[in-house]
Batch of 2 targets.
Target 1
Amino acid sequence: MSLKPQPVSVFGAPTDVGAGRRGASMGPEALRVAGLVEALVRRGVDAVDRGDVAGPRNPWQKPVDGYRHLDEVVAWNRAVMALASAELEAGRMPVMLGGDHCLAVGSIAAVARHCRATGKRLRVLWLDAHADFNTSAITPSGNVHGMPVACLCGLGPDALVHLGGPGPAISPSEVRQIGIRSVDAQEKRLVREHGLDIYDMRYIDEVGMKQVMEEALAGLDANTHLHVSFDVDVLDPAIAPGTGTRVPGGLDYREAQLMMEMIADAGGADSLDLVEVNPALDKRNRTARLAVDLVESLFGKSTLMRD
Ligand SMILES: NC(=[NH2+])NCCC[C@H](N)C(=O)O
Ligand SMILES: [Mn+2]
Ligand SMILES: [Mn+2]
């Protein structure tokens, strides 16, 4: 399958309301400074920057009933969902620059609704060190960026679970998680109960990224919408230090490249989240620059000679 020649709309959601450390709010600007839009245009993609969606400031409070800043998280996700929905309806691929990972509730709710309206199947690739499958009852932090997958699957507060309409946005069977290496004890139980398909670092070590991606991409067809939710903490902190919840033992450069190249080979993504870049923790914007490099590969940049 070759890359779909779809137009792209990039937009920012500059907030860290779902995170436990400040600074992911500066992610969109860091990715722009690293040349994301220009890189896509250079690849021949019709990419435009729609600017940022707006939302409440981060009040920086303690969790209440297991959630930190739930009202603010809901407000930001509504804004993300509205813009992502509009772009999908206009036939454009939404690329959401976070911001922390709680914002994937809004982007994926939009995508799921779009799939229902157009009769498409959905596959979500969740590239992350974390499963992000906590609930208010079991979260160790109250940070909603540790809960988006659970919320999308129907476990969470009504305002997030029903963001895109009645009922859960997705089913666990539509998700493939890659690069996982930090799951809280009770979260692990929940993940098992719901049968999430997880390609953890141990499995990647054992079988290699090639086989992992073949499995994670198996069963895609022309009628499948592929959403990629790229949390930069899936990368090893040695190459991507600019993120708030670093976990050692992540993907190295070649593994990450191969992952992106194989997604491109499978036809590319139909929507993308690029989240958890935290410039306050970065060195000379290298995490944003690496993310741009990898997104270029996702859009078909290849150094292949033997093709
Ligand atoms: N999107 C992220 N970086 N999530 C980190 C989550 C960390 C931890 N599991 C928590 O729930 O607090
Ligand atoms: Mn995440
Ligand atoms: Mn993460």
Note: The CA atoms of residues 206 and 242 lie 28 Å apart.
Target 2
Amino acid sequence: MAIRFKGIEKKYTVYSKPQDRLWEWMTGRQRHRVHVALAGIDFDVKAGETFGLIGENGAGKSTLLKIAAGTIRPTLGQIEREGRVAALLELGAGFHPEESGHDNIRFMAALHGLEGPAMEDFIVRATAFSELSAETLERPVKTYSSGMFMRLAFAAATAIDPDVLIVDEALSVGDLHFQKKSLNRILELRERGATVLFCSHNLYQVRSLCQRAAWIHGGRVQAIGATEDVVTAYEAHERRRYAHLRTEAGEEARQEAPAKPAAVSSSTALAKIVKLTTETADGINPAQVDSFQDLSVEIEVESYVDAPFHVLFAIVRPDKDNVFGTSTQFRVQGKPLHGTGTHRVRVRFPRLPLLSGEYLWSAYVLDDSGIQLLDMAELIQPFTVLNQKHREFGLSWLEHEWVQVE
Ligand SMILES: Nc1ncnc2c1ncn2[C@@H]1O[C@H](COP(=O)(O)OP(=O)(O)OP(=O)(O)O)[C@@H](O)[C@H]1O
């Protein structure tokens, strides 16, 4: 066990106006209401595992992470932790703005109880990881750009080689280069056996990183167990929650889907999806495909740096449910693509087994770990599939046979 939540409950005192607090203190009459953010939280995170926390906004995930990190105390219950804990929560919250970057690193080391050579080692590692110049590190941190501040905060938070790492969506720190570096640092600590408690709204990341997960709903554990089971249950809940929006969203996607990928690359993009081309015997990018027709999909990616990457794409329904997704990472060897310039990958679907319906494509470029998103083009190039040959209905053709039972 690395973290044990025992009967955790957290109540927040909420005042509608700041002056109510003073009024309550002066009169002794209650002017607040109590908000129960967490109740009955009882589970263990095992040593060495990567554990995901998922749930909708306001479910209580951050509160639970803060309790795990020891930055806030539960109203009821106990938290047990084993080993050195590093939390990537409110990065840099403990920094002194007037002090230099260097002094702040020193404070952080002292906070972890480090002295002498251990402190020097911490400072060297944090400084190197931050990639900030000696001149920058001598300046007060209040003069830093937000990117520089986050670099320093991440470097200082992970330089202790923690046994337990608590991460709240911290994978999006700084520019793309630093994001990758931060992610690699988290993966490296995990490889070395650190326990990771990881909270994210990115279910793809949770699926890729975590062995087990808990879905927090209304401050309680709604489901806990193997990641795939928990994430699937949460996705089903989300689908039901948005059920009333489905038709509208589908209509919108059909009307607004651009003919070309709506890439979200920034100017610092490492790679960009340039084109997605489909082809059947009827031609290029057909608006209509027959069920059981051979279909091929080609994705063109422009890579601006000599770094490895993977291409992932999915056939998606207008309500955003994935029908089928695949990635170059899932190939037998799973080798990433590599090198600057234009890359084209093609996937062939012999006898496309989709039945009648509206479909779109989503394509993604991911780094070599398959976790960091470099570019995406979602819900593009709508097409219709028509099942003219068979009478079976549904989404997809399933191999089957009818047997008369005597
Ligand atoms: N300091 C606070 N005072 C009062 N209420 C709070 C405080 N912090 C959080 N809450 C409330 O507690 C509930 C849980 O909040 P929390 O931030 O833990 O949710 P979350 O699951 O992390 O949400 P998100 O995904 O949006 O980050 C919310 O209703 C929130 O408004």
Note: The chain has a mean pLDDT of 86.
